[in-house]
Write a structure and sequence with these properties.
heterodimer, A: Four Helix Bundle (Hemerythrin (Met), subunit A), globular, B: mainly alpha, Helix Hairpins, elongated
């Protein structure tokens, strides 16, 4: 059952990603992107990242994609479609994509690499989830080991806000 | 726990995202494809957090923050470019091209 859900979300994520690239209108691309993000959040749940799954839906599929949608509406795109594919790059892109994917699948099909068997982190995460809950399990390392990067992230967000205001202001 | 399959998903998403950045010329769709690449990396981080502990999930948290900041600044740049050229087709702004 878990495998079935995993592969359902797998197909949804890949299909949505292909839709983002081949969709003709920017709005269509955006909706495919939301599908992909939702499917990825489903995979997060299966991989014991419950809090990240919630954040993925709220922040990514909610906030960031709505920001994109606002910009598309603001620029009034998506009415007349103009062909925007770089045909010259396309053949190189196909060769690169197919060869890399063949390499990955070759690694996968060569046999069991033993990654899942040595999943010691899964036990650790399970224990943290049971002891502190879904939010506490990730909040504990975030506010102890990684507290300096966390504060720097706050400064980064402040810089981003100021930068976006300066750039988007008329007569800047 | 399907770690290898998740890594395959991550690789596939990253390849599709890179392909989109290279092939499309609409700046907004290129931007969406960059977000796709960031998400592919997030998937890999979560998969590896099942191998080495919860640190991977903390990194995903940071990646999401950086992605939000990047989206805000990038979309502001796209808007100011649109004001100058009345288009978001990247072939039209090649001022900084070597």
């Amino acid at each position: 059952m878990e495998a079935f859900i995993f592969y359902a979300f797998f197909a949804m994520a890949i299909g949505g990603a292909i839709g983002v690239v081949i969709s003709k209108s920017p709005v269509g691309s955006l909706l495919f992107m939301v599908t992909t993000l939702f499917a990825i959040s489903g995979e997060f749940v299966l991989l014991e990242a419950h809090f990240l799954a919630a954040v993925q839906v709220i922040v990514y599929a909610g906030a960031i994609m709505v920001l994109f949608m606002f910009v598309i509406m603001l620029l009034n795109l998506g009415h007349e479609y103009q062909q925007d594919l770089r045909i010259g790059v396309m053949s190189i892109g196909w060769i690169a994509a197919v060869s890399v994917m063949a390499g990955v699948l070759g690694w996968r099909l060569r046999g069991d690499s033993g990654l899942s068997a040595s999943a010691t982190g899964a036990m650790e995460i399970q224990a943290a989830l049971e002891q502190y809950g879904a939010v506490g399990a990730i909040a504990r390392p975030l506010y102890t080991t990684y507290v300096v990067p966390f504060e720097i992230t706050g400064i980064l967000l402040l810089v981003a806000i100021v930068g976006a205001l300066v750039l988007a202001k008329r007569n800047a | 726990m399907m770690i290898e399959q998740t890594l395959v998903l991550s690789a596939a998403l990253f390849i599709i995202g890179t392909f989109g950045v290279l092939v499309r010329r609409n700046a907004i769709i290129m931007f969406l494809c960059i977000e796709l690449q960031l998400n592919a990396v997030n998937v890999a981080f979560v998969a590896f957090s099942n191998l080495v502990g919860i640190d991977g999930q903390v990194f995903v948290f940071f990646v999401m923050t950086v992605a939000a900041a990047e989206a805000a600044v990038g979309l502001a740049i796209i808007i100011s470019i649109f004001r100058h050229y009345q288009t978001v087709d990247v072939d039209n702004f090649n001022l900084l091209k070597w």
